[in-house]
Write a structure and sequence with these properties.
6-stranded mixed sheet, 2 domains, Glutaredoxin, single chain, Neuraminidase, 502 residues, mainly beta
């Protein structure tokens, strides 16, 4: 969440607290256990887009040194209240394919002892247990490798290098469900079908809205960036979807690309992005959309030939002009913050959900736990609810006092905005006319179905829902960590599950 800093020094590493929870490890790890190993500490929190990017870099480093005495240890130092729960962290580890041990840093004690100052903070320790590098933000893999290589050859010469890697046991990633961490939804214009981004299966499913019957599977299932037929194309953890006629547009998030699914020609093609993560660019459009580097496009919305893109990795909103095949930044200075104003002056913080309502583009601005609106006629950005990067909660009431916790999805519908209030495990409703927030579906975490507000209700609650879409009197919800699509009847207030089947 802040730029990298090269700051080598040689301070002795602090011991990990003995009573802290370890994940992805069969037993606690101590500094003494790590003698002879080059250790890379990754201070992260699972909401953070920069941390997500860093996980990919660290995965490449782990592969590079897999036969060497080099180990990555994640220190999960939570920003949000929900991120303090080991159960939730365990789901994030599974979702992002983290293979290395992770210690749950209660009350940020390890963070403070090591002087971490941003998410992520990267520290390299040599085999003698001394810190040789500290950096903040998205650190280049080349920089980390430089200090790892130096530590290896110096310790090898001194005879202090271990003979091989420290063996740890990652958690079991069983995946027996139809969906794996579904991210976003889109409904066909006639209401017959729902498209589901089956993110961790690297595919898109088209299913009957009423029946749940799977009509079409788009994507071969393995990770990659490949155009072609519906069954042969490759995606990498796709998220946002928008359905326009016979076209489904896809925010192919970890490919840093925008894809187009043509259901008439049964084909998939890339329309923007070269597959590489890119830096901030100036406010200008390019018609070389396929050659530009994007950064974690997370959601999409469409109106009047324009495809709006929540560019989470750059804290901006971009626009792709479909006919001109041109793309560029549309709103947001690129600074991660919450401030209103003109398109270029306003700030966003990891925008992750988009929805069009009239002339307004509504934004789930996740890291600021806010709901924003962008007037496409006047070009002005305003905040409906939310107050700051570290101000969050779950309070209903007047918009200026209501609080959300890292919302990721939303749906504008006839003067109402439905919000997937992700870290509150809830769906909330914003009345634009009344300027009030109410909770429709609250967290409960139990195991059967009933009215969620009945006394003694024992219903399966939502678990970090990432999206909600309204159609008629129904809400369709991507219940991400439950690996389900849920259906909420606005009349009866009953919450059920859409039974997906071949």
């Amino acid at each position: 969440m802040i730029s990298g800093l090269h700051n080598p020094f040689s301070r002795k590493a602090h011991e990990f607290p003995k009573d802290f929870t370890w994940l992805n490890a069969d037993k606690p790890i101590s500094i003494d256990t790590l003698k002879g190993q080059v250790v890379i500490l990754d201070f992260w929190t699972y909401c953070c887009i920069n941390c997500m990017h860093m996980l990919r870099t660290l995965s490449a480093i782990e592969e590079r040194y897999k036969d060497k005495p080099v180990i990555v240890i994640g220190v999960h130092s939570a920003k949000f209240e929900a991120e303090r729960d080991p159960k939730n962290i365990k789901e994030a580890i599974s979702r992002y394919g983290v293979k290395h041990p992770v210690i749950v840093d209660r009350k940020m004690r390890i963070w403070n002892s090591y002087g971490a100052a941003a998410w992520p903070t990267i520290i390299v320790m040599n085999p003698e247990g001394r810190i040789v590098y500290k950096g903040y933000g998205e650190i280049s893999g080349d920089v980390i490798q430089k200090f790892v290589d130096q530590s290896i050859w110096r310790s090898e010469a001194a005879g202090t290098l271990a003979s091989g890697p420290l063996i740890t046991t990652p958690q079991n990633y069983e995946d027996a469900s139809v969906l794996s961490y579904p991210g976003k939804l889109a409904i066909s214009e006639d209401g017959s079908y729902i498209a589901v981004s089956d993110s961790n299966h690297n595919r898109i499913l088209v299913v009957g809205r009423k029946t749940g019957k799977i009509k079409t599977v788009i994507g071969a299932g393995s990770r990659g960036l490949r155009d072609g037929t519906l069954s042969g194309a490759l995606f990498f953890r796709p998220q946002g979807l928008v359905w326009v006629g016979d076209i489904i547009y896809v925010a192919d998030t970890e490919n840093h690309a925008i894809r187009e699914i043509d259901l008439k020609s049964n084909s998939v093609k890339t329309i923007a992005g070269n597959g590489m993560q890119g830096p901030y660019v100036a406010f200008a459009y390019t018609n070389e959309a396929k050659s530009i580097s994007l950064s974690s496009p997370w959601d999409l919305a469409f109106k009047d030939g324009k495809l709006y893109v929540a560019m989470a990795g750059l804290h901006q909103i971009w626009v792709y002009h479909v006919k001109a095949k041109a793309i560029g930044p549309y709103a947001g200075s690129g600074a991660e913050n919450i401030s209103d104003g003109t398109l270029e002056a306003a700030n966003f913080a990891q925008p992750s959900g988009l929805s069009i309502g009239g002339n307004k583009l509504y934004v789930a601005d996740s890291e600021s736990s806010s709901i924003r609106s962008l007037d496409t006629k006047t070009g002005y950005v305003a905040t409906l609810a939310g107050a700051g990067l570290f101000i969050f909660g779950k309070g209903d009431g007047a918009l200026n006092r209501a609080r959300f916790q890292h919302p990721i999805g939303l749906s504008a519908n006839n003067g109402v905005i439905y919000v997937a209030d992700t870290y509150n495990n809830a769906v909330r409703e914003i009345s634009i006319k009344e300027k009030r927030v109410t909770t429709l579906i609250a967290a409960n975490g139990s195991q059967s179905f009933c009215r969620f507000d009945d006394p003694g209700c024992d219903a399966l609650g939502l678990f970090e829902p990432n999206d909600v879409k309204a159609y008629g009197n129904m809400l369709y919800i991507a219940d991400t960590n439950n690996h389900l699509v849920r259906v909420f009847d606005l009349k009866t207030r009953l919450l059920n599950t859409l039974d997906l089947k071949a």
